[in-house]
Amino acid sequence: MTPITLRKRRLELVICLVFLFGLTACSAGSFSDSSGFKKPTSPYAPGINQRKDAQDGIEVAHRLMQAGEYELAIRAFNRAALATSLDAEILSGLGSANLGLGRLGQAEDLLRSAVEIDDTRPEVWNNLGVVLMERGKLAEAKLTFRKAYALDNGESDAIRDNLRLALAKSEKSVTVQDKEESYKLVRRGSGDFLIRPAS
């Protein structure tokens, strides 16, 4: 047997022993330290609790949106959709997250789908208006903001501000400076998301 073959066999033996030792450690059961804390027996992360309320997932996604974690928010909205269904709130959230990432085409498609499912939600119309402004579709954006404002009965400051900005921009008002103003995305309940207009 040549020295190279011998070295190769020794290496294979060492790999097999390490693998077997790992399997033995994994199946040895749970261990407790002196404080009584029970360590998990599996080296893998716990599975998804399918019984957990999907509304919790939607709330997590909204919090991620507020933190500016748009990719993570998309994952959370997708998980919530799998647990329930693809409703207007989830579509709106996905659209808003895509807008935050600058994916304007995807954002517009998702938000249009959301208003097709439920055209009574002012926050969805508002967010669609923001996307339309970002894409330079000014005339449609104004109509969309007006719809949102009417459905909201003028109660949301964010929707009112967005409508004001759209109207001022269409009149080419010198008092509105894009670099200083921001369009606001609105979610159901309290809180809104801030999205800077495209330069």
Strands, helices and their partners?
Elements: H1 3-26, H2 54-66, H3 70-83, H4 88-100, H5 104-117, H6 122-134, H7 138-152, H8 157-170, E1 183-186, E2 192-195
Antiparallel strand pairs: 1-2
Characteristic terms for this protein:
8 helices; Serine Threonine Protein Phosphatase 5, Tetratricopeptide repeat; single chain; disordered C terminus; mainly alpha
Structure description:
There is one protein chain. By secondary structure, the chain is mainly alpha-helical. It has a domain at 54-189: Tetratricopeptide repeat domain (Serine Threonine Protein Phosphatase 5, Tetratricopeptide repeat, Alpha Horseshoe), CATH 1.25.40. Helices cover 60% and strands 4% of the residues. The protein contains eight helices and two strands, in the order H-H-H-H-H-H-H-H-E-E. It has a two-stranded antiparallel sheet. Strand 1 (183-186) and strand 2 form a beta hairpin. The longest helix is centred in the N-terminal third of the chain and has 24 residues, at 3-26. It is elongated. The model is unreliable at 25-35 and 194-199 (pLDDT under 50).
